[in-house]
Amino acid sequence: MVHAAASELRVHVGPVSAFLEEDERTVVKVGDREVLVLAVRGRLFAIGNRCTHLPAQLRRGHVLPESFEINCPVHMGRYSLMTGEATELPCETPLPKYAVEVVDGELYVFVPDTPLDPPRADLQSHAAGSGRPAGLHTNKEAK
Ligand code: FES
User: Fold this and answer.
1) All structural domains of the chain with their residue ranges
2) Are 40 and 64 in contact (CB under 8 A)?
3) Is the domain defined by 8-60+94-126 classed in CATH 3.40.50.2300?
4) Which of 73, 72, 66 is nearest to 91 (CA)?
5) Which of 95, 99, 114, 119 is the S-S candidate for 110 at Cβ 3.0 to 4.6 Å?
């Protein structure tokens, strides 16, 4: 079991079966953070949903299962799902990478209880004013 650090929130995502059996992608919003949760070849990943080149949503990106990477749908930049590192230009800045945990068939992600650094102006509309976590919102989308 993974234990949340003092500055992290443990956020319930849903049944893990939806990700492993139905190939679901979900975006979990916590404060100004958007966390993309998905499974590739039976492995669970949680990374930032917004491309660091421009704020495109990676949930609409194409996954490369053989290398555990995802392409941004706008300019085809690429990221490693395993590390969040940018692996193809024009992306250069890594994505946030989040820990995941499965307990009794339920999936959780661990999200820092702090705003993104530096703040992403494009995501400010999702924050609850102070930059503190504004609660959990899920936007489930089948792949
Ligand atoms: S917006 Fe993602 S690569 Fe340009």
Assistant:
1) 8-60+94-126
2) no
3) no
4) 72
5) 99
> Distance, CA 17 to ligand 1 centroid (Å)?
31
Alpha carbon distance 23, 114 (integer Å): 30
Distance 114 CA to ligand 1 centre (A): 25
- What does residue 19 show for φ and ψ, rounded to 5 degrees? -85, -40
Say if ligand 1 is within 6 A of residue 11 CB: no
Cβ atoms 3, 14 nearer than 8 A: no
Tokens standing for 68?
């555990």
Residue 14, pLDDT score: 93
98/134 Cα distance (integer angstroms): 18
Cβ atoms within 10 Å, residue 13:
24
Q: What are phi and psi of 21, to 5 degrees?
A: -105, -25
**pTM of structure:** 0.80
Instruction: Determine if ligand 1 sits within 6 Å of the CB of residue 73.
Output: no
pLDDT greater than 60 at residue 30: yes
